[in-house]
């Protein structure tokens, strides 16, 4: 039986996992959930499966896992080696630890900064908060700096890793808010190049980004 991924295209965390699945060309059954209108993530069957009722959620032979970065790490460990070991290496401890560091930066710093800045504006109609805007700018500056240190092609070394996929999904999300990234030169170049060269980028991201933009438009009226 194939693993099954329950996901919403609107979620950048889900889009990172979708890109990971496509990168490794894995057979995963995709179950799209409507978490906006039908609130499918709150249905009894799903809450029983995942008491935290979050997407993405993976089910693999009775094993249930959520948190996008943990799902990607699991998929590489179980289905990706040896061909895709570079995404999250088993034995190169320094590369793996750097990928871990950047995945945690993505979750705890960059994503947090985006949510803290935009959520009150979108969901509560609050005025943009300058202090939060500065925290977001600083997080983007950090990523720009990390790219300078890694040579700019990928965030860790000279091959694609899970950190690129997670951070790309996060940074691309800023486009829905019309937040410009051109001033972060290395970051912008890295993002644009991956968007143009990963053959599955559009397939994994376009629908969700459009849905997210539409939701933002509706909130304005
Ligand atoms: N840290 C989580 C975030 C996942 C997340 O926030 N999912 C949202 C959709 S963007 C969700 O399922 N929200 C529904 C809920 O929490 O009830 C990950 O990376 O997987």
Structural description of this entry:
The chain has 221 residues and is α+β, with helices and mostly antiparallel strands. The chain folds into two domains: 4-85, Glutaredoxin (3-Layer(aba) Sandwich), CATH 3.40.30.10; 87-220, Glutathione S-transferase Yfyf (Class Pi), Chain A, domain 2 (Up-down Bundle). The chain is 58% helix and 7% strand. It is built from eight helices and four strands. It has helices at 12-23, 44-49, 68-80, 93-124, 130-150, 162-173, 185-197, 201-220; strands spanning 4-7, 29-32, 57-60, 63-66. A four-stranded mixed beta sheet has the order 2-1-3-4, covered by helices on one side. A hairpin with a 2-residue loop joins β3 (57-60) and β4. α1 (12-23) packs parallel to α3 (68-80) and α4 runs parallel beside α6 (162-173). The longest helix is centred in the middle third of the chain and has 32 residues, at 93-124. The model has no long low-confidence stretch (mean pLDDT 97). The chain binds glutathione. Residues 11, 13, 35, 41, 53-56, 67-68, 107 line the site of glutathione (GSH).
Strand content is 5-15%
CATH class of the largest domain: Mainly Alpha
Strand order of the largest sheet: 2-1-3-4
Instruction: Please compute the radius of gyration using only Cα atoms.
Output: 17 Å
Largest sheet: 4 strands, mixed
- In the CATH hierarchy, what is the architecture of the largest domain at level 2? Up-down Bundle
Summarize the helix and strand pattern as letters. EHEHEEHHHHHH
The best one-word shape is: globular
**Domains, number:** 2
Strand tally is 4
- Helix tally equals 8
Distance between the termini: 45 Å
Bound molecules: glutathione
Helical fraction equals: 55-70%
Give the structural class: alpha+beta
Reported by name, the CATH topology of the largest domain is Glutathione S-transferase Yfyf (Class Pi), Chain A, domain 2
Uncertain runs: none
Compute the average pLDDT: 97
């Amino acid at each position: 039986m194939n693993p099954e991924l329950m996901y919403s295209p609107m979620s950048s965390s889900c889009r990172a996992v979708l890109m990971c699945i496509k990168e490794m060309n894995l057979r995963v059954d995709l179950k799209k959930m409507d978490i906006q209108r039908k609130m499918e993530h709150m249905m009894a069957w799903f809450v029983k499966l995942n008491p935290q009722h979050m997407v993405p959620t993976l089910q693999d032979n009775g094993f249930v896992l959520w948190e996008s970065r943990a799902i990607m790490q699991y998929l590489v460990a179980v289905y990706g080696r040896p061909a895709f070991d570079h995404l999250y290496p088993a034995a190169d401890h320094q590369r793996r630890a750097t990928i871990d560091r950047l995945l945690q930066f993505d979750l705890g710093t960059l994503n947090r900064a985006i949510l803290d800045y935009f959520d009150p504006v979108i969901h509560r109609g609050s005025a943009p908060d300058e202090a939060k805007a500065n925290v977001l700018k600083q997080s983007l500056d950090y990523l720009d700096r990390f790219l300078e240190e890694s040579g700019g092609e990928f965030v860790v070394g000279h091959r694609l890793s899970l950190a690129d996929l997670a951070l790309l999904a996060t940074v691309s999300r800023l486009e829905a808010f019309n937040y410009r990234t051109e001033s972060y030169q290395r970051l912008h170049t890295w993002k644009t190049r991956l968007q143009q060269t990963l053959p599955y980028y559009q397939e994994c991201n376009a629908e969700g980004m459009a849905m997210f933009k539409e939701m933002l438009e509706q909130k304005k009226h």
